[in-house]
Amino acid sequence: MPSPQLLAVWAAAYRAGLLDRSRDKRHFVFTYDPAAEPTDAQVSLTMPVRLESWTSRDLHPVFQMNLPEGALLDAIRRAIAKLAGENDLTILRITGGNQVGRNRFSLPGDGAPGVVETPESLDELLSYPNTEELFTELVSRYALRSGVSGVQPKVLLEASERATATVGGFIVKSWGGEYPQLAANEFFCMTAAKNAGLPVPEFHLSDNGGLFVMKRFDVGENGLPLGFEDMCALQALGTAQKYSSTYERIARSIRDFVSGEHLQAAREQFFASLVLSVMVRNGDAHLKNFGVLYERPGAPVRLAPVYDVVTTVAYISKDVPALSIAGTKRWWSRKMLEKFGVAHLALPVAKVGQILEQTAEAVNETMPLLSAYKKDHPEFREVGGRMLAIWTEGVSELATAKAAF
Ligand SMILES: Nc1ncnc2c1ncn2[C@@H]1O[C@H](COP(=O)(O)OP(=O)(O)O)[C@@H](O)[C@H]1O
Ligand SMILES: [Mg+2]
Asked: pTM of the full predicted structure?
């Protein structure tokens, strides 16, 4: 009799293989189907199709990548409390039909998992007066179809946009009392990223500031899923190790995985997003907040757009960067960042300077927008006021062009 845990793994429309615990329960084992196509059915850039099984002590990082954490995991646990043997594979089985990236999971006897959803209206999501009530309702409807990681409460859903008359996949993020006004915080940080010319997914703030909504970047224009792997997966680390790495190692992963034709753009984007995170004091730019995208294995690999930038110091005044540079986690000086860009990203000195100026300008440009919103939204006054002070300091610390060489 097959193990009750046995799962079929799909890479886009291709059946890739089977995933299970080993008999002694000490390992997780993934085995490609003998008929799996060498590239189409490949489940990760780090796991080529081969006859030999892929064995891992913990669940393979690429399969762990989208395991819900925090509030979403709690919601799923509540919903499946009656199911015996709740563990990582059960959560994958439950959320497996709709995952960020190209991989899906189903019971071995079932066909390719597909989700048929009646789309929500994006306009209504953004203008609904009681977002708390709306979000509770969305979680009850979509939690079990949301293979997405991260600690903030969020769900994956389909929504139609009146402006374009198309239906697309969205991520709806909410916030709890611990981090008040997080959606507006993220909205203005992402606006600064956009103003700096960085690629960002389409994003929205709901009218009452309760929700941050963004378009999924892991779905192609034809609606087919793109391959997405975060830096945890690429560095063969589990989610628990998302803070146990360095920005030097991300630079190395970019060099190792991003295709030649996209490498320069990826290095500039990564450097600019790092500079932005220092300027706005985002202490949560860990391994899961960077990733790569590709149409299918073997096709060109590029860096995913910028996401999840938040002024964490607005809540945790002593917060420090999520990962280290030169062995330190502190808000580095301009000189340190310049050295990092040149030594680890092979960027010319002039380019590094230009990115620093451009990012400072973008943050400065975004502050009046934040101020205006703060004036109209008294509930944002406290957090918004802190953000303005933090950004002003962050920019002034880095903006003075002192020659490092
Ligand atoms: N626009 C997007 N499209 C597709 N996947 C995304 C997008 N934004 C984030 N993700 C994925 O969802 C995960 C959680 O989103 P994130 O914004 O980082 O939430 P959190 O604040 O909870 O960490 C990310 O680690 C990434 O895998
Ligand atoms: Mg995140």
From this structure: 0.96
